[in-house]
Amino acid sequence: MTANNTYSVERGAKDSTDSTTFKSTLCHQVSGVIIFAIGLGIGVIIGVYAIKPTDGDQCLNGVASVAPAVVTTPRPVVQPATNKTSIPSCPADKSPTRSSKSEDKGMFELLSKDEMNAVKNFLKAQGHVSITEGTPTLKDSYIYGMSLYAPYKSQALNHLDKGGPNPGRYADVHVHRGNRAVPDLMEYRVGPLGGAMTAQAMYRDGELPYNSRPRDGIEWDGITATVSLAMATLRPLLQESFDGAFYPNGGLVFHPQAPPSLQANERGTRFVMAFIVDGTARGRDLNFLPLTGTVHNPGVNTNTWYAHSLYYLDQGPFPTAEALLSAYNNGTLRKVALPRGYRQTLFSTTYPKQNNDKHRESSDKAPPRSYYPSGQRYSIHDHAVKWMDWEFVVGSSQFRGPSVYDVKFKGERIVYENSLNDVTLAYASDVTSGANTIYMDATFGVGEFQSLIPGVDCPHHATLLDAAWFDSYSQSPISANAICVFETAGEHSLWRRKDKFAAGMANNFLVVRTALPVGNYDYTIDFLFFLDGSLKTDASASGYLQSSFWDPENPRAGQDKAIDAFGYRVGDYVHGAIHDHTFGFKVDMDILGTENSFDIIKWKAGDVATALKTQANVTEKPSYFLYNETRYVEWETLATEAGLKIDLNHPEFWTVMSENKNKWGVKRGYRIAPETLAAQVLTDQHPSMKATSYTKYHCVVTKQDDAERFLTGTYDLNRLADPMVSIDNYINNEPIVKTDLVTWVVVGFLHIPTSEDVPMTIGPTTGHGNHGTILTERQHSICLSTWTPRIDRSRSAPLNRNPVLSRKQKTVTFVNNCFI
Fold first, then answer.
1. 8 A C-beta contact, residue 638 and residue 707
2. Burial letters for 136-155: b for 16+ Cβ neighbours within 10 Å, e otherwise?
3. CATH of range 378-458+471-499+506-783; options 3.40.50.300, 3.40.50.2300, 2.40.440.10, 2.70.98.20
4. Which of 514-518, 746-750, 813-817 is predicted with the least confidence, judged by mean pLDDT?
5. For domain 113-206, is the CATH number 3.40.50.150?
6. pTM score, whole prediction
7. Fewer Cβ neighbours under 10 Å: the N or C end of the chain?
8. In 10 A of CB 671, how many CB atoms?
9. How confident is the model at residue 99, as a pLDDT?
10. How much is the average pLDDT of 585-592?
């Protein structure tokens, strides 16, 4: 009742003043519309001119210029997160850019898929390749791999620097010639590409034994059939020992190991059985089992291959599977029986994923990301890159991996070639699967590329470059977005000074990155280019460990069951075998020409008279030295080729120097500084050391020779006793003063796996130690002008300047026109 009365009174009052109220209401509405329109206009203006970034700043204070995007929270890529959050979206979220293409390719340009197909068809027409279609067999002559055959340096420089004829582009083609009466291997130099091609055989017939060939999918099929026969016999042993698993198609797989043999004319493939981990291709490496053997597999006739030398829990060798099964059944062997249901736990312990029960604080927030406020500051044509004062060509080889060629700074060539050559690993473990394992990854094709992982390998704004390689199994080329280029902020100063002024320069640099999955490991190679003319080459490793089986009842184990002489227990039945990763690079520097010398600056300490004798005939300490102990340096110019090792007790600066001097009379050049934890402790008696002799050094200096292309031989893993290449043979007393010299630089790390390496080893720049770096720094540069403090009232500095704003002090810019 009250409500109705109230309503009636209000209705009555409204009705009695209807005309007046209507006019008043209309006035308020019109005023409101006008105010709203004015506010909307002001809002638009503010939005356009105050909030919307200008061309020079597309994201201000984390506020995006486009609608926010819904993304998953930052989790490992392999395990998508369930939580979602809105974060500002910057232009960096756009698809990666690509370089422009041309038909006229430079002499260092990677082979394209079309060029590879043209070479394949030419070799078929010439009868060098017998396979016409489908998958080859070992009895065919087929292409194993193909890459650019780098031009001979003298011809390349004659063209680049003197306007001589273009040496042309050639393909380096490796062919397995199984169809010959005496099968062998051959390498052909095919080209010039795009012209009237010829195929030049680089070896004599029979010089490369067939049994020293790299393993490929064609041989794998034959090995698989042989292992299957042996495992069919051993099925009762497999199922009782390994949680009901068997081979094939029963949860087990085999893993071949290296080397296959020490002699080039022999071939025996050692293998270890392992669990299959669903959802992974290489999870087996973390789940090796104590059952190994060897397949005798020389030649092309797989009907003659057989399995022998089988071990079970390191007991053996047994000549046949039947012999092993008999010993197993008659109770003469020590046995193992993994718990029932153990295989069901493998995915959770092998597959990398987020621990959703223990979120890190603020992990639902997006991490920092970089972007280009004014667009990219580099340009790329094909694989030729220009950025600031740098220009170079990105190269790569299916056999050897990534490289950069013709590297110039301020128009002057610094490096003719900087290329990965090989990665060597030697394992040690107290099991038959790991006691004698050696890898030389160039044998397996370091440059068999896969596409990069977006947002993991490179930022979203990076430019992707393609790289092609030739697949032997399909006899066709494969191309991948395997290389990325991007500029990044180092988030620290290149230089700084706080005085009566404040000045500095941000350390922005350009990155060329390639990620290389090789077996169980993924290598990441970075070529870094800095504003001051320095270069870095960084090599790191991540991926799965190649483990050993941890035997809880090992009769050779000590009292502590968690460690042994070869590492730690890192899983239920997983032992982290010790090993190393040694990266070898060819660094051919040309400092202001090819007439260079290698100067060693020795950092020493001693009495004052000894120090002064390095410059004059001084026999007594001058009185102004208060004490008779000082540090000083000595200079030595290497007269002949040499291998050098880092000795922290005797520090040295290794420099490649030009006879061209700066205005103060000092030679100009670059310092090579290997930042590495690698040190070879194996003696020359170890069977791998002839082929991997480069691992004994941190830098080898030799005279440039077109015949000395690589620091290891392509087939040497399979002929360790008689390798084709040994870096020791390059060191043969040739004079290297004022000549064209090459430095072979070695970096890497020693790896004692721990539980933190499971399921995935930590790789680049984490302090974990799984990387090595070559730092190449300018020495004795000369500046045309110096930086000068001055007031800068402009909104922003030029794109290649990085002014630092100081509070209550002048804003400082600088001019820095240094060249090498």
1. no
2. bbbebbbbbbbbbbbbebeb
3. 2.70.98.20
4. 813-817
5. no
6. 0.84
7. N
8. 18
9. 62
10. 96
